[in-house]
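Lab meeting minutes (informal)
Scribe: AK
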Amino acid sequence: MSILKKFFNRLNNSPLTYIEKKDKRQVITLIITILIVFSATKIYQVTAAKNTLNLSPKEEALALQRLDSLNVMYAQKLKSDTLNRLDLYIANRYDTLKLFKFNPNSASEKDLQKLGLTEKQIANLINYRKNGGIFKTENDFRKLYGLRTMQFNFLREYLCFNDSTAPQPLSKEKTEEKYFDFDPNFLTREEMYKLGFSTKQIESFMKQKDEKNWKFYVKKDFAYVYFIDEKKYKELEKYIKIDLNKLFNGKKLYDLNLANEDELSQAGFSHAEAQNIITFREKVGYFYATWQLSDCIKYDRANSLKTNVYTCHSVELKKININTADEITLLNHPYLTKFQVSKIIEARNSKQFKHIADLQTLNAFDQKDLKKLQHYIEF
């Protein structure tokens, strides 16, 4: 200790002029810290060595065995905490399967069973191949309807697409046979997959049916589903079979835009109400929703009878051009007031309307007005 004390005193009082006294003290502090850490490490090593258990080979083997079992238990606990029940079932099942390389374009049904695919998944895969479908990449196989992400992760490294048994595309005549008669009101997920729709489109369709209570009353209604283009609709049109009797559970309902006075009377409306409905229908340019009944008859009557009628998605509404229609045409529209018409005519003398939102600048329309009017005007 005396040697260290003399060293630090000499270092602190050294005549080196280019080092300030404050810096010298920092160097001394650093050296002391290094010595303390070094001493503490040595003390710990000596103490740990004294306290180390001397296990026999048998005791050491038992300890390692216990440690392995704890690792297994931890892995199982971690798996059960992070996976839902279905994924947990899949993970446990694939732990027992012996996987092998396979080509989804040519694998037999028996091989697909050995790879852990369910009967529905196998049926979807085989149906896809029969209809001329070819799996070219991992992503193609991932899109197989009903295939879980966890299943795909287990199988992806065993996929191969380069053998000579891959099926060739079917001729045009044969590909047309993939379609079948269907009612869009009662389509199942499996049927939509067979019709060529993607998983994303199927789930979107089912969500809309559930949340917005989509109904299809005529074939053309199906063309108004957002992901069905003109080409796809033409391919499917002859296979669409709407069963209104099944849709309405045997009850007789009437098309609000086509029903005459007698048919509206059969739907429960009085003759006066039926006349008001027809008159309003002609003026407004057809109904786009049954709630519009309250715009031409009493609200309580409209609310109680609207379940006896329906409107098709594909109804062709009559529209008026807000930029060119004359004053009389605008005044005759049920959803335009005299004040609103005057504001429109005044404004279009100096500008052209390009969007429904442009009407908001006139300070004559609220959101409720625009919501109704947007279906009946064009620019």
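Next up, CB showed the second protein from the same session:
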Amino acid sequence: MNNQETLNQAQAIQSLKATDVIRNDYVRQQFISVYNAIWKDGGEGVYEREAMYFNNQLRDNDKLRKCTGVSVFFSFIDLAVRGLTLEPGAQALCYLLPRNCCIGKNQQGQNIYESRCNLTISGYGELVLRAKAGQILHADNPVIVYEGDGFEFGERDGRKYVNYCCRIPRQSDRIIACFLKITRPDGTVDYSVMTESDWKRLSVFSAKANRYWDNDARRYVEPPNQLYTSADGQIDIGFLKAKCIKHAFKTYPKIAIGKGTQLESEVIGDGGQPETPFDPYGGMAGGDAPQAGKSFADPADTSAGVTVAPAAGSDDCF
């Protein structure tokens, strides 16, 4: 398309309701074309499947239905670019998250906000992307370590190691650690380990991120994400496993993601472009793309990346 046709198409998509974007003929054609170009074939079947999952999430979330048409378009096309699925479940690879962004000021100097849809990749989805990128061969499921289990970790001859023995019957319900085993493409092994002191430190950061003024108490209140204490005073197991995955790749190279996508572990800014030799957005990645801006939405609970409609009150600091 030439520039004028691209502009017209972008304006047409922007004018659509969020729930109407995915079934638009142009969007359908673009998704299938992009998917087949990257993954060779199967685009039509994948489109039908992901269109159903995508619209189910839109229908179930009032805030998502208020998102701009173009932001919905970018998020949907990014599914094709990355070969991910929105299929819900206990280990969902990704989900949709609405975020309010400041796009300018009105004549009175007040901020103008726009609600945008973001394809948010969970820790499990990040594992899939890193395997596709060749950074890892595979990763085991995170393992919860309880008091009384045999557990030690360290480094020997420049290599990390973990020695673990699960005691059965369990001697205590107190969680003391969580670890993730990662196998690299060359067959060597890497480990990500979190201990109780790690998530207590994160809880403090979470509390600071959620700080607000309580009018009744006439003071600032700093409540951490409730998942840090929701399991009878302990950290939620699913939340801890996701945290372990989330922090396993802090020293790994960044992975490229699309314009309508963000990782739970970090929101990649400029430069996070799809690694494809063409523009998957059909030329609409210029002035019509969502611009980087400050989010003014209530912090969303993207804790474990395992639900398709995260509740408010997440800790974005980690």
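CB comment: The longest strand covers residues 94-105.
No objections, moving on.
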